[in-house]
Amino acid sequence: MADLVINQINRYKYETLTRQDLPEGRRYVNRHGEKLPSVTTILDKTKDKTKLIEWANRVGEEQAEKIKSDAAAVGTCMHAYIESHVKIRPLQPAKYAYQYKAYRMAASLMEAYFPELDEVWGNEVMVYRRGVYAGTTDLVGVYKGEPSIIDFKQANKMKKREWIDDYFIQLTAYAAAHNEMYGTEIRQGVVLMASQDGLIKEFITCGREFESYLDHWNAKVKEFYAIAASESTEKPRLAETKPDT
Q: What are the residues whose beta carbons fall under 8 Å from the beta carbon of 47, sequence distance 6 or more?
């Protein structure tokens, strides 16, 4: 992996936001003093959890929590490995089996797909739309010739494309915020996924499909603030989240 060269370009001066994990979900505080709900919090609050609840009931609550906790540990470690490589900093040595597994998954992703990265503009980039939402995307840059928002995902077993609508919606949310903050015209989202059973896969959304997912995101933002208003926990300020054309 040491010979995998990444073309990093500091095209934008990215802001650092304060992140807070609260009972009502994650919030980001920007330089304007706004406390904004995260993209993942909005998606979670507006998600239909029927199938998730059915699965938890089927395997048992304790086992369900263990599966989710184990997956989160692998995912966190995989992201840390990729981030260390991108930022060219020392990697913490692996001590546990899940860390070795995560490192192999990350290495497979990078070896297969990082040669397609023409430019890397930033890693763990925090973005927001004033008064609306904020979030952190794994990577921003140019992928296969197109400005893109890129996220790395892990899965116990490889997912089918029709199962990852929320991932694509998430990417369009980050793109809309990045476009507003930095005057970009990002219209492509890339999910690079590694599964614990040894598979890797690339999922790309662009064009009309990308715009459709952005429309879904707009609807979820409105739904989130409607729910929040009914619970009297948020003061809504809705804004159109589609980038200017």
A: 166
